[in-house]
Amino acid sequence: MSADFCGLELAHPIINASGTFDAIAARRAFGEELIERFPFSAFVSKTVTLAPRQGNPPPRLWELPAGLMNSIGLPNKGLEGYLAHDLPELARLPVPLIVNVMGFSRDEVARLVSAFAARDEVAALELNVSCPNVETGLVMGTDPDEVARLLAAVRPLTAKPLIVKLTPNASDVTAVARAAEQAGASAVSLINTIKGMAFHPLTGEPWLGGHTGGVSGPAARAIALAQVHAVSAAVSIPVIGMGGVQSGRHAADLRRAGATLVAVGTESFRDPAAGLRIAAEIRAFSYDAP
Ligand code: RRO
Prior knowledge:
By secondary structure, the protein is of the alpha/beta class.
């Protein structure tokens, strides 16, 4: 069940959601077997920013009855650290590498895109315009005009596929998707996490160090399905669908809603081999089977 995505020939349609699978740590934990049986047909890295970041203060996670809420806040080594330390490791993976980038201005995103445009190890870029956990509260991806201006600035900088990661926290996600397509995006991916909040059970203060967080996992699945369905009908470029996928049936649902590829996120924390299992299950799944 191979998948053609923006000219990349992938072995199957299951990839990871950015930030939910640390391939470098997983290789340390599982050894070379992880490389021989890599769970995903392409690997999407955690978000890289221009400058190094510590991330948000703890606590960073809150468990929900049907999912997880995070306020990680983009900790990463920054562009220079990523190029020096992470890229050589990730380039050894047996699948194409998609690098997820985020900037706090168009100029920052442009500098990140230019840097990765020059690297043969990178097959495609994902522009994260949808992180819910930044101090400024500013999320570029909620405004179609902002997204169009960003694409106008960065599209000329690379011939590599540019995937725009959309937020479910926009008032009209289809308008943002159409703006991205018209301005030259190669694909869109959705959904990022849904903004949420929890209070400390004893003090009543916000539990998360970042105060609010992003909801993922099964709680997000029906929302993802509706948004992927709406966006797939609104654009002609490929769609990567994600949100609460735990099984081949869930992945098949997102494909039926219009997704070309399906990303597994929160489920990988419970089962690091979930990608392999879901890829096998979707191969076997058919709505018409008796
Ligand atoms: O690092 C995070 O807090 C984070 C990011 Br960049 C994102 O895109 N989505 C999310 O739920 N958390």
